[in-house]
Design goal:
Distance between the termini of chain A: 38 Å
Oligomer: homodimer
CATH architecture of the largest domain in chain A: Alpha-Beta Complex
EC number (chains A, B): 3.1.-.-, 3.1.3.7
Strand order of the largest sheet of chain A: 3-2-1-4-5-6
Strand content of chain A: 15-25%
Helix content of chain A: 25-40%
Keywords (chains A, B): Hydrolase
CATH topology of the largest domain in chain A: inorganic pyrophosphatase (n-terminal core)
CATH superfamily of the largest domain in chain A: inorganic pyrophosphatase (n-terminal core)
GO molecular function (chains A, B): 3'(2'),5'-bisphosphate nucleotidase activity; nucleic acid binding
Enzyme class (chains A, B): hydrolase
Number of strands of chain A: 12
Shape of chain A: elongated
Protein name (chains A, B): Bifunctional oligoribonuclease and PAP phosphatase NrnA
Chain lengths: ~325, ~325
């Protein structure tokens, strides 16, 4: 089906539906919640009955999103005729199986190339920096006037999934859509404060512990940080708060590969690998039974932290020095 | 003079000039260098002879800017008929006095509200997120086709001065101009890597030391970090690299005021104050003979680090608890 035809059919289904349920993925982030809420609030302005579902609770940092207090962890009952999934590559991401669908019409909106196309209508655009970009395009085609509540949700989706417009998925189109959102009168200072300036103290303590463990190898091309169970306990941080810490090591001048090793249990070490320019960390991680992408990968070790660290250093240092894993 | 008339006169002066010298400010940043280089490279496509001046050397992190190798620390001789100053609030910012001007025509392009309007033509727009925004408008009006070299310089100006589109000076117009720049085929990944992922190890070590000193007061509303002379010595960092560190303290949930105290000499302490929502740090800093803005200010103490810290905590804690300094 051509994209235009697909879009028109989706618009038609949504226009006709008296009630719509929206679904977003586990461990919710700014893009899945922002996309879901924006779409739902917009459909309500068309007089639809709308319900919001997420398997997990809304994270504190995203509780400012307009409409977020209406997201439920129980499935809508009765099940509406139209179910819309946003930012979900597959049904496991939303803790469901297709048994739930019954005779409902499934619309699947996503920007992940790996999307499993589980819907009757699948609008997948992997060129979009965020699912919110696709949702904004959809709303414009539905002829819905943007308001601040809808725009706040969509902006949050874009700014979080594009890494403040820094990730490689950011395009000229991303910036133009953002301009339209800002023109609704967005309170950017407040959104940025909620998103980026409300870090739990535990997260900063975890960064402190990670930096205190920082070591360089391979003439400064490899940076390794470790977090022990004790570090998590002392900082009061859970695993989730270590997200992104590895970038502090990756961004050091001269570093090509950065590794964060986290002790998550006895003889259980989770690792995250990042590279900057040429080293394929997916290949390195696959040597330890893990994987991912060229510039971001990971694996789990069933050994001690010290042993995992030695293995990682040995493999990556050799790769860096011999110029392997390109 | 109306803005339109002013713009037209500036265009006319530039069109007629056979040679132009461009000037940018001391301690050069991405916006002043990017603006100057973009303007100069564009004028060259019109067949002008162009020279670039900055009192200081180009920082390593900005050496990737196209044309940056042509910036000189010596004044152009002979002095061209047209001199263009970018991003300079006054002539001290470029280590000059008006004695230098002779009978040259001075064009002054800036986005600082405090600009001293020292030129014959002063294009000051304090609504622009970066001087590069104004320069792009100028280039479009000159009818110059953007190329990647020009766009790389302008994008760098915008992305650095807008804090990756996070500062409050970012507008819908900023994003639309950015879209135009990206469409020239900018290598965003490479620009971001050069700007943000080439941190000196010394800077990361300084962050480590700052975090190790972090203390909270006033029920977590005040975060204080200190850097000793020994911290600077051990990390190998100079003062400049402590720029921005205070934001790690400011962004902690619950913190209203963050302070970084730096020992820069015996009995000489430089301090930076930041606030998030309501506390006027300008008022607090002025109690110590310093000043700045409501949300960012600073002062210098002629006492020991311990004493300066005690004074700061005492004044700010009281202000926070009594709700003063709004």
């Amino acid at each position: 089906m051509s994209e235009r035809l697909l879009t028109e059919e989706i618009l038609e289904v949504l226009r006709k539906a008296p009630s719509v349920a929206l679904f977003s993925h586990v461990s919710p982030d700014g893009d899945c919640l922002g996309s879901m809420l924006a779409l739902g609030l917009a459909l309500e302005t068309m007089g639809k009955k709308v319900t919001f579902f997420n398997p997990d609770r809304v994270p504190m940092a995203l509780a400012f999103l307009p409409g977020s207090d209406r997201i439920r962890q129980t499935l809508p009952d009765p099940r509406p005729q139209v179910l819309v999934f946003v930012d979900c590559t597959d049904l496991r991401r939303v803790s469901l199986t297709s048994d739930y669908f019954g005779d409902s019409i499934i619309i699947n909106i996503d920007h992940h190339i790996s999307n499993q196309k589980f819907g009757h209508y699948n609008w997948i655009n992997d060129q979009a920096s965020a699912c919110a970009e696709i949702c904004l395009t959809l709303l414009k085609q539905l002829g819905i006037a943007l308001n601040r509540e809808i725009a706040t949700n969509l902006y949050t989706g874009i700014v979080t999934d594009s890494g403040c417009f820094q990730y490689s998925n950011t395009t000229a189109h991303t910036h133009r859509l953002t301009a339209e959102l800002i023109e609704t009168g967005l309170d950017l200072a407040s959104i940025h404060y909620q998103l980026f300036d409300q870090k739990p103290l535990a997260q900063v303590k975890l960064l402190q512990a990670a930096l205190n463990s920082l070591e360089l190898y391979a003439d400064g091309q490899l940076a390794v940080m470790t977090l022990t169970l004790e570090n998590f306990r002392q900082s009061g941080a859970d695993q989730e708060l270590s997200e992104g810490l590895v970038n502090h090591a990756r961004s050091i001048k001269g570093v090509e590969v950065a590794v964060l090793l986290k002790e998550v249990g006895a003889q259980e070490i989770k690792s995250g690998f990042r590279s900057n320019v040429w080293f394929d960390v997916n290949k390195a991680a696959s040597q330890f039974g893990g994987g991912g992408h060229k510039r971001a990968a990971g694996c789990t070790f069933k050994v001690s932290l010290i042993e995992a660290k030695q293995q990682v250093i040995s493999v990556i240092e050799e790769g860096l020095i011999l110029g392997r894993h390109r």
